[in-house]
Amino acid sequence: MKRRKPSLEKRRSRSGYIFVLPWVIGFLIFQLYPFIQSFILSFGELTDLTGLKTRWIGFDNYIAIFRDDVDFVPAFIETIWQTLLYTPFIIVISLVIALLLNQKIKGRGLFRVIFFLPVLLGSGTVMAQLGEAANIMQIPPTIEQYVNYYFSTDIASFINSILSEIVRMFWKTGVQIIIFLGGLQSISDSYYEAAKVDNANSWDMLWKITLPMLSPMIYLNVIYTLIDSFRSEDNAIAGLIVNRVFDNSDFTYGSAMGWLYFLVSFTVVILATVIFRRYVYYEK
Amino acid sequence: MKIRRRLNGITASKVFVYIFMIALVCFTAMPLVYLVSSAFKPVDELMVFPPKFFTTRPSLDSFKELFTAMDSNTIPFTRYIWNSVVVSVATVAGTVVVCSMGAFALTKIRMPGGNFIFNLIVATLMFSAPVTQVANYLVIQNLQMLDTTWALIVPKIAGSYYLFLLKQNFGEIPDALLEAAKIDGCSYWGLYAKIVLPVTRPAWATAIVLSFIASWNDFTGPMIYIQTQVKQTLPLALQTLQGGAGQVARAGAFAAAALITTLPTIIVFCAMQSRVINTFTHSGIK
Lengths: 284, 286
Known about the structure:
The structure holds 2 protein chains of 2 kinds.
Chain A: H1 8-41, E1 44-48, E2 53-56, H2 60-68, H3 72-101, H4 108-120, H5 125-128, H6 132-136, H7 141-150, H8 153-170, H9 174-185, H10 189-197, H11 202-231, H12 236-247, H13 251-277
Antiparallel strand pairs in A: 1-2
Helix pairs in contact in A: 3-9, 3-11, 4-9, 7-8, 9-11, 11-13, 12-13
Chain B: H1 2-39, H2 43-46, H3 61-67, H4 77-109, H5 114-124, H6 129-142, H7 150-157, H8 160-170, H9 175-183, H10 188-199, H11 201-217, H12 220-225, H13 234-242, H14 251-283
C-alpha cells in the first residue's frame, strides 16, 4: 500500500519552517537564551568563579545597585537624560539636512556619502582612537577662539558648550538622514503641483504636505534614534556594566544592572511608540 | 529681463543651500581629510605641535613603516587585515543567506507561528548589548568558541535587524509572480534562488553594507572574546599600534593603519549608495 502524501498545506508549512530554521536556531542560542540567562543571573550570587556556580539571593543585587554603588545612579541619569535631550535635536537636524539634500543640486550623491561618513567611520569607536583626530569631532578651534574673543568668559563657555553638543549630535544623524531622504523621494510630485496651482508658498507646502506625508518616517526615526542611543556601546551605562563585569568579574551584579537599564529604556521606547503613533498620517 | 529673473531665483535659494551644505560637510569630512593627510605625512611633520592639517611634502614612509615588521616577535599588519577580511566576509555572507531565507519564509510561505516569530523579532530589536553581554560571554564559553574566530562570526549571523529590513522589502514582491512560477513546477528553493533573490537585490545590498560596517568596525566583540594577538582584527590592532611602549615611534604606522581601516567601509558604501536609499524608502513602517 502506498503511503498517503501529506497535504499541500502541511508540505507548505514544513518548507516554511526549514527556511526560517537557521535563523531561529541562531536567535535562540545567541539572543533569547542569553536574555533569559541574564535575568536568572541577576538574582544570584557567584559562589565559584571557575565553575560559574551561582546561589539564589533574590533582589539583593538590585538593592545593592541603589544602596552601595556610587557610580550607577549618575551614569543612569546621564544616559537617559542625554538620550531624551538628544533625540528631538537629532530628528530636527537630520530632517533639515534631508530637505536640503533632496533639492536638485549638483553633487547630491557626494553630499549623501559625506553625511553618511560618521556611520561609516564607526560612530566614534575608530575615531575615538585617532588621538588628535578625535578633537576634530568638536567645534573647529578657530570658531572657539572667536567666541572667546568676542564674549565674556561665562557666555563664551556657554556658547562653546552648546556648539560642541550640536557637533556631537550632528555625528549621529547619518542613518536618520537616509531614512528621511527615502521618505521624501516617495512623496508624489502631484501634491506639490496642485498646491502651486492654489498659490501655496514653500513654507505652507512644508507644513501641509511634506511633514504629514513624512510622518511615518519621523515616527520610525524617533524610535530608531531612541533604540540606537540606548543600545550604543559607548554610553555611560554600557561602560559601567563592562567595567563591573569584566574588571571586577561580578557577572551577577552586572546582569542586574543590565536588566534594570533594559526595563527603563524599554518603557521609554514603548511610551514613545504610544505617543507618536497617534500623530502618524497614513496615505490611503 | 527674463534671463535675469531666473538667475536671481537660482542665486537666492541655491547659494544659501550650497553655503550651508559646505559648512556642514566641513564637520563630517574634516576627520577623513585629516586622516588621509596624516597618513601621507613624513615622520617629522607628524611630530609637529600643534599638528598641521595639511602636509606639504607627501610621502609613503608611514605605509612602508607599517608593512615592514619591527621585531622578530611582531605580527605583520597584513595578518590583521586578513583576519578582518575573513571575519567580515563570513559574517556578511552568513547574515545575508540566513536572514533572506527567513524573510522569504515569513513573507511568502506563511505557516502557523510565522506571525509570532515576526513579533519576536520586533521585540528583540530593543534588546540592548549591555543586558546580554554577560550571558553571551557564557554562551560563547560553553560552545568552546572563546579565543577563536568563530566567536566573532557565528553570534552575529542571526541578526533581528537585517531580517526585519529584508522582510519589509520582500513583502513588496507581488504574489502573482511567485504563483506563476509555482504553477510551472518551481520548488520553494527555486522560487527563493531564481525569483526572490534577483528581484530584491537592493534590499540585500543594504543588508551587506550595514552588516559589513557593523562587523568591520566591531570593537567590543574582539576585545571581549579574543585573547591571542595573532587572531585580533583591525580595530584592536589599531589600539595596539597607538598604545604601548613604541607609541611615539609608530605614530606614522598608526596614521597609515587608520586610513587602511576606514577605507573599505567607505568604498562599500559608495558602491551601493543609491540602492541603500531605495531600500530605506520601502522599509518604513507603513
